[in-house]
Specification:
The complex is a heterodimer of chains A (348) and B (395). Chain A is α/β, with parallel strands linked by helices and 348 residues long. Helices cover 43% and strands 18% of the residues of chain A. In chain A, strand 4, helix 3 and strand 5 form a beta-alpha-beta unit. In chain A, helix 4 crosses helix 11, helix 5 runs parallel beside helix 7 and helix 5 runs antiparallel to helix 8. Chain B folds into three domains: 108 residues, Nucleotidyltransferase, domain 5 (2-Layer Sandwich), CATH 3.30.420; 101 residues, Nucleotidyltransferase, domain 5 (2-Layer Sandwich); 116 residues, Gcn5-related N-acetyltransferase (GNAT) (Aminopeptidase, 3-Layer(aba) Sandwich). Chain B has a seven-stranded mixed sheet with strand order 11-12-13-14-15-17-16, with helices on both faces. A five-stranded mixed sheet of chain B has the order 3-2-1-4-5, with helices on both faces. A five-stranded mixed sheet of chain B has the order 8-7-6-9-10. Classes of the chains: A alpha/beta (348), B alpha/beta (395). At the A-B interface, helix 2 and helix 3 of A face helix 1, helix 2 and helix 7 of B.
Chain lengths: 348, 395
């Protein structure tokens, strides 16, 4: 079926290359995805046990045009019909970001269409707008991925207040490290999720970390160490390790902390909507826990489907749309900012 | 023909618009800002200043590498975005060739040097040869293709050439500033350094050389274009070293045919086909050896291979190939030694022969080390690119 595009429709061509996915999408009016193309490099990086920045950057440059052309083709939209071009400019791997940023700037320059630099995490949060047409700010959002763990109040489109973040490892990073320690390999998140379904989450009692003086910050390195210590102790004492039990117990410890902190924040700040975002948001145990806890506490719970949890460009298109409406534009000197903070804008 | 030239391979960012023999605009900056902040604003300024309609551009010539990995990608991604939007092709210009083009018409040898870190330079060796027709100008000729080597290696070659042919050499590029004292110490012949007006990357040179390459049919689509790094990433290099440590040599099997055909295609411009290798399996006078990696988790397990044909007691060696990332790790030497041994034992061969491209210095050095000596040259024997074949024999 042909999508009808009206003159007043705002079409964002979005580009994302902050880590190991080369992605482009066309998004209509912020919430309707006309195409969402993702070229994943995961198989390549699996050889190295994690993302190798230089290899990721090399792959991005090989794929970027194909991905953009495919996104336009699948959306059945010509480049001339696009309203504006949005691109992730941070945070992420600088070499990887620069490929998307440079290509987007050149496209914007050659077509004389507005350029909008988008924060990667704001993209993740905005993924929720795509499938949940009723969701509007304000709400509390937990962003959990391989590189980020943030608890945020989304006060308005493009307006954020950070309540807490991780003091050490990101939640996804802890999954990767523990997965490696128990021999599951990379990427750790999906592998732990899967094997945990066969394990007893109460088999091993791992600590639920609190950060002194902050109700909403997280710390996962202590938990990771506790898992490693447990494995060492078992080995020394000759106790057989039940991988599924260790995975399930570790996962539960992470989920418990994420759920408790998040829902306490929703209550304290007086909101009635809560959303999750980021790669770890597709973890089945995390979703189940939030679903039941939110139902108990009468909080509306939102989450993107897995394809929109992983790094993708549709979410950048959604975030870019609201930036566009606010009149925020980037210049041709837009640079990649690897450690860009949430809510920070380096846009002309 | 109107060409946009871009160079962000080194410290310099440079943009130029060149139409036939006129440089309409050139903007070159040698400043600490990243190319991401400079390159496109510079082009924007050119566009404004010269009232350039982007749709009048016919092609984008880009310094396609070697150079700083990130710098190359900023230029490439910019070119790819422009190429996609304007629907024009990209002409990949070897960075070092374009640097040499700065010294157009210069009668000396030309040696561009770019600091490549890790005690290496990106370099090459060039000269300008007068075209026969009067008014046709000079042609940039490559003596040593662009490569990443130590300064001592390239200067060694220059010294030899200067001694034998009474030549002089001109050094240029950002590597001069880094290696000036060493160049002075190592160079035995006459040399000079290019002045500031032509000793760094210039996009007008990239565009001018690009125009020549375009006439020779060299261009690619924006989607196809990617930089030529001349180097693997550190992770790949370390991994290749690890893999290259553990392999064994055996005869080719039927199950290797796909991989061997792919290996051949990746190494030669006119490769043998699947059927040719398949025939080898049943030909009693032929044997193809492979070096197989013992690391289980790589997709391409065949690191290299070589062929021996028994012709009435003489051994013809062909198809000596090693995957690019595993070169320089003595795999070809090990393959050749095994092949010579097998030839003597199985066929009673006493004399071996092979032909090698005269420009392929690494291979020639390898064969010399194994005891092969030159017995003649077949002029222009090879195509794509044209080259002489050196005939080698070992008794």
């Amino acid at each position: 079926m042909m999508e009808m595009i009206k003159k007043e429709d705002i079409l964002i061509l979005a580009i994302e290359s902050s880590c190991d996915e080369t992605a482009a999408a066309v998004v209509k009016n912020g919430r309707e995805v006309l195409s969402n193309i993702i070229s994943s490099q995961i198989e390549l990086h699996t050889l190295y046990g994690g993302v190798v920045p230089e290899i990721a950057s090399r792959k991005h440059i090989e794929k970027i045009n194909q991905v953009i052309e495919e996104a336009l083709h699948e959306a059945n939209v010509a480049l001339e019909e696009i309203t504006a071009i949005a691109v992730t400019y941070g945070p992420g791997l600088v070499g990887a970001l620069l490929v998307g940023v440079s290509a987007a700037k050149a496209l914007s320059f050659a077509t004389e269409k507005p350029l909008i630099g988008v924060h990667h995490i704001e993209g993740h949060i905005s993924a929720n707008f795509i499938e949940n047409k009723v969701l509007e700010p304000p709400f509390v959002c937990l962003v959990v991925s391989g590189g980020h763990t943030h608890l945020v109040v989304v006060k308005d489109y493009g307006e954020y207040e950070i309540l807490g973040c991780t003091r050490d490892d990101a939640a996804g990073e802890a999954f990767d490290k523990v997965a490696r320690a128990i021999g599951l390999g990379y990427p750790g998140g999906p592998k732990i999720d899967k094997i945990s379904r066969e394990g007893n989450p109460d088999a091993v009692k791992f600590p639920r970390a609190k950060v002194d003086g902050s109700n909403y910050d997280f710390s996962f390195s202590g938990l990771k160490s506790a898992v490693l210590n447990y494995l060492n102790t078992c080995e020394m004492k000759g106790i057989e390790i039940h991988t599924a039990d260790v995975a399930a117990s570790f996962q539960k410890a992470v989920v418990d902390v994420l759920v408790e902190h998040s829902l306490n924040a929703v209550k304290e700040y007086g909101y009635d909507q809560f959303a999750i975002a980021g790669g770890v948001a597709s973890n089945s145990a995390l979703r189940t826990a939030f679903e039941s806890e939110c139902a108990k506490r009468k909080i509306e719970f939102y989450h993107p489907s897995p394809i929109l949890c992983t790094d993708n460009a549709a979410m950048i298109g959604a975030a870019g749309y609201y930036e566009y409406l606010k009149g925020r534009r980037s210049g041709y000197d837009l640079n990649a900012v690897p450690n860009l903070r949430l809510g920070e804008r380096r846009i002309v | 023909m109107k060409i946009l030239g871009l160079d962000s391979s080194g410290l310099v960012a440079s943009v130029a618009v060149v139409e036939e023999d006129v440089t309409i605009a050139e903007y070159t900056v040698n400043y600490k800002k990243t190319h991401s902040q400079t390159l496109l604003p510079m082009f924007d300024e050119i566009k404004r200043m010269t009232e350039l309609d982007l749709h009048t551009l016919d092609a984008i010539a880009i310094a396609a590498g070697p150079g700083s990995f990130t710098g190359l990608r900023i230029g490439s991604a910019t070119a790819k975005g422009l190429g996609l939007a304007l629907n024009i092709p990209i002409i990949p210009v070897p960075t070092v060739d374009a640097l040499a083009y700065n010294a157009y018409g210069c009668g000396t040898l030309i040696c561009p040097l770019m600091d490549a870190r890790r005690n290496q330079v990106y370099t090459g060796l060039y000269e300008f040869q007068k075209r026969t027709e009067s008014g046709a100008g000079y042609e940039l000729c490559t003596i040593e293709k662009q490569c990443a080597v130590s300064l001592a290696e390239i200067v060694g070659k220059i010294n030899e050439l200067c001694r034998e042919n009474d030549r002089e050499v001109l050094f240029l590029g950002d590597g001069v500033a880094v290696y000036r004292d060493q160049i002075t110490a190592l160079t035995t012949g006459k040399y000079s350094f290019a002045p500031s007006c032509c000793n760094r990357q210039r996009a007008s040179c990239v565009a001018a050389l690009g125009a020549e390459l375009y006439k020779k049919g060299i261009s690619e689509t924006a989607a196809e274009h990617a930089p030529e790094y001349l180097r693997l990433s550190q992770a790949e290099r370390e991994r290749a070293e690890h893999t290259a440590d553990k392999y064994h040599i055996r005869e080719m099997r039927r199950s290797d045919l796909e991989e061997v055909t792919a290996l051949e295609a990746s190494c030669f411009s006119m490769p043998w086909k699947y059927g040719d290798f398949e025939e080898t399996l049943t030909n009693p006078n032929r044997v193809y050896l492979v070096a197989q990696a013992e690391t289980a988790d790589i997709k391409e397990r065949i690191l290299g291979g070589c062929m021996l044909t028994n012709i009435a007691g003489e051994g013809g060696i062909t198809n000596v190939a090693v995957r690019e990332q595993y070169r320089g790790k003595k795999i070809a030497t090990a393959l050749m030694e095994a092949l010579l041994k097998l030839g003597r034992e199985r066929y009673g061969i006493t004399a071996f022969t092979l032909e090698v491209r005269s420009q392929n210095m690494p291979a020639r050095r390898l064969y010399e080390k194994l005891g092969f000596v030159s017995k003649g040259v077949r002029p222009n024997f090879y195509e794509k690119p044209k080259d002489d074949a050196v005939i080698l024999w070992k008794d």
